[in-house]
Amino acid sequence: MGNGVKEGVVRLREDAEPVLPAHVSSKSDHRQVLSSLLSGALAGALAKTAVAPLDRTKIIFQVSSKRFSAKEAFRVLYFTYLNEGFLSLWRGNSATMVRVVPYAAIQFSAHEEYKRLLGSYYGFRGEALPPWPRLLAGALAGTTAASLTYPLDLVRARMAVTPKEMYSNIFHVFIRISREEGLKTLYHGFIPTVLGVIPYAGLSFFTYETLKSLHREYSGRPQPYPFERMIFGACAGLIGQSASYPLDVVRRRMQTAGVTGHQRTSIVRTMQTIMREEGVVHGLYKGLSMNWLKGPIAVGISFTTFDLMQILLRHLQS
């Protein structure tokens, strides 16, 4: 085969989508979805387990009127360890895994599908989406995942702020809430969750994809190194969580109102109460500095794990 023909084939492979028979294309799509689900599930599990003690401590401050500081956060961690043992720092993590594994799997898989659909609509390949569709793909992915897994998030928050005697396991939380507070309580705080997920997921995916795109453009390498992915993910987590943090505090208050003594009210009333009693900085942004520590770590691990798993699975399939 001549050089000109070879170059033409290389260009065809790089610049054009291969035309496959319908049954082959369908099988390939199913494999991609399964690959995204598996990679997303593992990414979410590793990321959340790594920061679970910090996450639990943050929730304790979010749902109480205690002033947050690094010293107080360390004291909560230390006394939890002394009084309840080392593994108690991961209390509620089983509920987190029950939520995070399907949440992350759905979110990452949905993001890949939304990228593909929006890319097709705008005439772009998914990885080369322009800024607004890139932001929209992330926001839609986060909203989809949050909508399908919300009751598990509420259960996890309840387990994080209550003693072991109150709820023995995940199923016990569901049973007691259903019996004592009604089934609709399982979706209390859903609206602020979705309102917070839109900027969080949108900006996180947007930032990470943009940094990868800029890296390809300026480095000349098609793939970043793992530590570079971690840095891109950390930046994505920092921006996404800072933008949506006040709504995260509001949803935690609404989720745990039944067990912390706070009155169950609307989003606006909950936000007004927090600002009136604790102020804007010490109320709506309580624990944000801890999020700046745990958020970049978790999101960095999550995005890096997903990408590396995708690469590994593609190699195994080929």
Automatic annotation (TrEMBL):
Subcellular location: Mitochondrion inner membrane
Keyword Mitochondrion appears in the UniProt entry: yes
InterPro entries: DNA_mismatch_repair_CS, MCP, MCP_dom_sf, MCP_transmembrane
Keyword set, alphabetical order: Membrane, Mitochondrion, Mitochondrion inner membrane, Repeat, Transmembrane, Transmembrane helix, Transport
Catalytic activity: dADP(in) + ADP(out) = dADP(out) + ADP(in); AMP(in) + ADP(out) = AMP(out) + ADP(in); ADP(out) + CoA(in) = ADP(in) + CoA(out); 3'-dephospho-CoA(in) + ADP(out) = 3'-dephospho-CoA(out) + ADP(in)
Solcar repeat placement: 31-117, 129-214, 224-312
Topology of the protein relative to the lipid bilayer: Multi-pass membrane protein
GO CC term, one of those recorded: mitochondrial inner membrane
Signal peptide interval: none
GO BP term (any one): transmembrane transport
Taxonomy, superkingdom: Eukaryota
Stored Gene3D superfamilies: Mitochondrial carrier domain
This protein's record includes keyword Mitochondrion: yes
Function: Mitochondrial carrier mediating the transport of coenzyme A (CoA) in mitochondria in exchange for intramitochondrial (deoxy)adenine nucleotides and adenosine 3',5'-diphosphate.
Protein family according to the UniProt entry: Belongs to the mitochondrial carrier (TC 2.A.29) family.
Protein name listed in UniProt: Mitochondrial coenzyme A transporter SLC25A42
Organism: Balaenoptera acutorostrata (Common minke whale)
